[in-house]
Amino acid sequence: MVAVDELSLVFSALADPTRRAILERLAHGDATVNQLAEPFEMSQQAVSKHLKVLEHARLISRSRTAQSRPCALDTVRLDAAVGWIVRHRQIWADRHDRLDEHLAALRKAE
């Protein structure tokens, strides 16, 4: 089970639309910082800061290939976050179903 602190890092990283867009790009394959910065109207330094947040949350990894440092999506933490969401969604769905049953019983009793 993933610790709550790790999930907090993941959800915090995912809270920013630029970082989500970077992850979407990396879902199609590895990319360099320059490639990731291309669609954004921000400096390469600003994109690098976003990458550091994603790397700290362990959503991406960087390798060294000759003179470049390509970034790659690391789905392990995303999978853990999805698992947490699915579990809690099920809890709320079960509670909603029980509430519906309770309300139906109340209406029937009237």
UniProtKB/TrEMBL annotation:
Residues 1-93 form the HTH arsR-type domain. PANTHER family: SLL0088 PROTEIN, TRANSCRIPTIONAL REGULATORY PROTEIN. It comes from Acrocarpospora corrugata. CDD domains: HTH_ARSR (cd00090). It comes from the Bacteria. GO terms for molecular function: DNA-binding transcription factor activity. InterPro entries: ArsR-like_HTH (IPR011991), HTH_ArsR_DNA-bd_dom (IPR001845), WH-like_DNA-bd_sf (IPR036388), WH_DNA-bd_sf (IPR036390). This is Transcriptional regulator.
